[in-house]
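TEACHING EXERCISE
Course module: macromolecular assemblies
Task: Read the component lines below, then compare them to the predicted structure of the full complex.
Student: A.B.
Group: 4
Components provided:
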Amino acid sequence: MSDLKRYLVPWMDQVKPYDTEDLLIAWSRPELKRMMINENPLPPSEKIIQAIVEAAKMGHRYPDSGPRIRAKIAKRYDLGPENVYISHGSSEIIDMIMRLFVTPGDEVVLPNPTFSLYGIRARAVGGKVVAVDMTPDLQYDIPAMLRAITPRTKVIIICTPNNPTGDFIPDDDLMKIVELGIPTLIDEAYLEYHPEHESKASLVRKYNHILVAHTFSKAYGLAGIRAGYVLADEQLIQYLRKIQIPWNISLLSLAAADAALDEEEELKRKAAYNNAGVEYVCKELSKIPGVKPYYSQGNYVLIDATDAGVTGKAIVEYVFEKDGIMLKHFAPLHGREGFFRISLGTHEENSLCVQSIKRFFANRKKEEKK
Ligand SMILES: Cc1ncc(COP(=O)(O)O)c(C=O)c1O
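Instructor-supplied answer key:
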């Protein structure tokens, strides 16, 4: 046996991979309600499936960099195809950005809480994650983020709307970060749920250090197909090309994403379906004393049950055991242990989930009276 540690990059033992246990459980037990990983509960349209089937017929050929779809995307943002890079989901973009800018010991500043993959990919290249707690009302703490910047800060992450807190960052706050001139990822993974909110893509024209990421995994509902894109200054896109494998995205993903871009009505339908679910869950759960849902612009709702005297973990365990509903709980924030997140499901699943949570609290009340 070789002593692998002699060869391994020295920080690798400290790297914790993204926990995919939930996905293993969900795929092995299809009866479970998958409300833990911000998927879209509505399957792809027949048109998209047909586009994938057509593309599969050319499956013996290597894909190109998707000039057609890049042109289509660029037009939407009044940019050029040279400003667009198509990726195998936006997770790949996150990873590429870390590999492009971060060397061991460099710092990545991000909000806490946020999508955990940013930190995981930063650590995978030896980076140090500087997580800045959001304010007690779960907004970006910009003064604290600015104080966290050091000469070793190589990347800043702005997730807007933020996963899991659900709000967009206000423009003036965003500009304080942008004006620093430090490479900044503006992750707009959930923006398509609220197209009335303007994308920050236009910043790319003025600032060569800004990257704006989008995905087909959320409102478009293609998480299993894997496609995303990033918008940036042409030179920055060229750097991304240097570090990435040229045929990173499969023909099937390209075809699905291309077809999805043409389905504007389908996208609107999916967004409206989700947004009705958000309204419903927030309205119902806010009726429970001590339970605070944070209204969300994404396909998830963060809930704080601390004032009801329970932990997020206890609720998540209850709904899983009693009703086969998979949710996610979060680490304590500002000393509050009641955080958990519901990823919206079908209307039926949302209703089941709300009922299950209400039953959890009703049972507690009964226990207290005994
Ligand atoms: C904020 C954010 N960005 C990116 C992603 C990853 O999406 P993709 O499926 O495109 O890799 C997620 C997934 O949950 C997310 O929440």
